[in-house]
Amino acid sequence: MNRKRARQLAEELVGRMTVEEKAGQLRFDAPAIERLGIPEYNWWNEALHGVARGGTATVFPQAIGMAAMFDDELLQKIADAISTEARAKYNAVSAGGDRDIYHGLTMWSPNINIFRDPRWGRGHETYGEDPYLTARLGKAFVRGLQGDGETLKTAACAKHFAVHSGPEALRHTFNAEASEKDMEETYLPAFRELVREADVEAVMGAYNRTNGEPCCANPDLMKRLRSDWGFEGHFVSDCWAIRDFHENHKVTSIPEESVTKALKAGCDLNCGCTYKFIMHAYELGMIDEEDITRCAVRLFTTRFLLGTLGDEGSEYDAIPYTAVECREHLELTHRAALESCVLLKNDGLLPLDPAKCGTIGVIGPNANSRSALIGNYHGTASRYVTVLEGIQNIAGETNRVLYSQGCDLSKDRVEPLAQTNDRLAEAAAVAKNSDTVILVLGLDETLEGEEGDTGNAYFSGDKENLLLPEPQRILMKKILSIGKPTIVILMAGSSIDLQEAQDKAGAILLTWYPGASGGQAVAELLFGRESPSGKLPVTFYHNEALADMPSFTDYSMANRTYRYYAGEPLYPFGYGLTYGDCTVTGLAAEDGQVTVRVRNNGCRDTADVIELYLKDLDSPLAPPNPVLCGFQRIRLAAGEEKDVTLVLRADAFTVVSEDGERIPGSGRWQLYAGFGAPDSRTEELSGRHALSVIIENKGTR
Question: Helices (DSSP H) in 341-459: which residue ranges?
């Protein structure tokens, strides 16, 4: 069903409603209208990395981990699997009359905010710090969720519009001030591309104000969205964000004023309770019936596009419940976990050989943690495999595997009645009695995540700094001092200062939150059944770098992210090692088409990611550092050499003026191709440098 037909049906149906009935449909928990054959519908569902909060589902790696795959083709397949499970669950439960929250087909994902500051607790819900990477992955995810059928498979939602990335504790009162240049260069491109190129069905407004106006009723943002970009879907508020207008932002005085401001700006759907005041505002003459009708028509257009109303139905109505956690989806999440892990250091200790590594000591608070597998906004898996269990599965039959929790994730003791560091002596004993040590550290959703509210289980929020919690730092220092060959595994969703591990450990593997069965994939990487091939979608800084950045509340991009950072990072954006030895041996570019010759000089097959970066050589408007403009995941057999062709977007050769206008660049550009970013730190860590050529391109808007 095309949008024109769906809108026609929506207009006809809404035209038969009373004003009270229309007003009631603008709530996220829309009631049934039995006389018109309209069932109740709850718009709130989540699909960040699997169908979330609604029972059993395949739990894929957290979004930041899937970004580290640098694989939009696989991400689209994952999103397609998620939408299949959403349909399967919806078909099953709605047939039984269950239309509760988290059971619908409107998925409030993906989160395409830019991870601008490493302290932001929700950063691991995003695709990282780069607008190009975020847009490309976001489009793939939307296409997978929405499908290419006659009806929408599910409806995706780009959030949180716009300029939203912390601080969490201030989000209900905060005014994010961003220059026009930063808006166009950083904060808006991904939203624009998801609207224009992926036809995302919904956009969610953020809690904060942007440049003075609350995002869910921001005239400038709404003009860009609907007038400039041609968005035709529906707009939904973040949950209880409209209540913030009068309670926190103080831009209105009473709920009726907040309702009026939101409706007239174009916020169609209220996640929260403020739209219950619509009828009172209407009776006071503050809004017209036309304001209510316009929003209702947009919402019912989406419901018709989903095939959930009318007689036509959807081609997805026959998806059976058995699609949930099917073998194909479990294989997908396993592949995603393998591709997402990033090898940060390896002095030759990895891959492990069970015949040579002897007794294995597995230590750390995340070693046997299910919470560290799943991140936030997660579903419930029927089976979990922790890192410890994955190691036991592979090496347990031939090697003795010892285990100690070592410490609590963040508290100074595991047992409340014990003395501080009550697992430290045991951990040291495990290390001393082992030939190889695997130290599993990090965070989980209780330490980095969303500010706690009605819809969020934990009161975690942002990080205060980039250090591991003190009990883990004590544990790491103790274990590394023992001197055994040690691999550090970091399970976290953001930048952590691992300088001590970089100095003293034999290898470091970043696994993010790798999904419900991610421990098996991690073990397979450790023991060389597959080569790590993930790349960092964010910069890993030293903790001291925070002092040189703008404050957390300053939305200027100066000295933030790899595009603007002037210091030396611990691990750069785009960095990640493999067990192979892939290099770029040739580079040619003509008319936006780039041919890269690559070779694997290593003795084993591996996947890797070609990365292209551009630097305007003459324009003072260009970011100070080369900017990602293309990537392609490849697989090379040992000794294999081949040419790979990538195509650059025309707007790659543009810069942004101070007033936010995208204009052609200087015409002289340096194009880099490599398996990481073209910076000295990447070269130092990887031993490889990017090839580059100078190209002439005047660019287009």
Answer: 371-374, 387-395, 424-432
Task: Report whether 184 contacts 656 (CB < 8 A).
Answer: yes
Give the tokens for residue 590. 């003509």
3-class DSSP string for 501-565? HHHHCCEEEECCCCCCCHHHHHHHHHCCCCCCCCCCCCCECCHHHHHHCCCCCCCCCCCCHHHHC
Q: What is the rounded distance in angstroms from the CA atom of residue 592 to the CA atom of residue 697?
A: 9
Q: How many residues does the chain have?
A: 701
Q: Which of 238, 244, 291, 608 is catalytic?
A: 238
Sheet holding 691-696, edge to edge: 627-636, 606-616, 668-674, 691-696
Give the span between the Cα atoms of 113 and 450, in whole angstroms.
Answer: 14
Report yes or no on 357 lying in a domain. Answer: yes
> Nearest 5 degrees, angle CA 332-CA 336-CA 337?
120
Q: To 10 degrees, the CA torsion angle through 274, 279, 283, 288? A: 90
- Antiparallel, parallel or unpaired: β 41-42 and 641-647: unpaired
pLDDT digits (tens, 9 = 90+) for 6-21: 999 999 999 999 999 9
Q: Which CATH number characterizes residue 542's domain?
A: 3.40.50.1700
Question: Is 448 within 8 Å of 121 (Cβ atoms)?
Answer: yes
Whether 48 is in a domain gets the answer: no
The answer to whether 53 and 116 have CB atoms below 8 angstroms apart is no
Pick from 585, 580, 665: nearest CA to 629: 665
**3-state SS, residue 255:** helix
Say if residue 353 is exposed, middle or buried (CB neighbours under 10 Å; 0-12, 13-18, 19+): exposed
| Nearest in space to 449 (alpha carbons), one of 535, 374, 537, 557 | 374
Instruction: List beta partners, residue 214.
Output: 209
* Bridge partner list, 42: 29
CB 413 within 8 A of CB 420: yes
- pLDDT per residue as tens digits for the range 206-261: 999 999 999 999 999 999 999 999 999 999 999 999 999 999 999 999 999 999 99
pLDDT value, residue 405 = 98
Are 274 and 224 contained in the same domain?
yes
Up-side HSE of residue 594: CA atoms within 13 Å toward CB? 30
Q: How many CB atoms lie within 10 A of CB 493?
A: 28
- Nearest Cα neighbor of 114 from 91, 137, 90 is 137
Q: Which domain holds residue 619?
A: 582-696
Residue 335 structure tokens: 């592949």
Question: With a threshold of 0.85, does the pTM exceed it?
Answer: yes
CATH number, position 277: 3.20.20.300
* CA nearest neighbour of 371 among 471, 518, 510: 518
Retrieve residue 214's tokens: 């609350």
Query: Which of 23, 27, 67 is closest to 493 using CA atoms?
Result: 67
For 130, 244, 248, 266, 295, the CA distances from 262, given in Å and listed in that order, are 30, 11, 15, 6, 11
Spatial neighbors of 93 by CB under 8 A, at least 6 apart, are 99, 100, 103
311 is annotated as an active-site residue: no
Contact between residue 27 and residue 277 where contact means Cβ atoms under 8 Å apart = no
Give the CA distances from residue 15 to residues 10, 294, 474, 607, in Å, rounded to whole numbers and listed in that order.
8, 11, 67, 56
Look at residue 311 in the predicted model and tell me its pLDDT: 87
Low-confidence ranges of the chain (pLDDT < 50): none
Residue 204 vs residues 207, 233, 331, 445: alpha-carbon distances, Å? 10, 11, 32, 22
End-to-end CA distance of the chain: 34
Are residues 592 and 477 part of one domain? no
Per-residue pLDDT tens over the stretch 504-543: 999 999 999 999 999 999 999 999 999 999 999 999 999 9
Same domain, 270 and 352: no
Which residue reads 């830019």 in tokens? 114
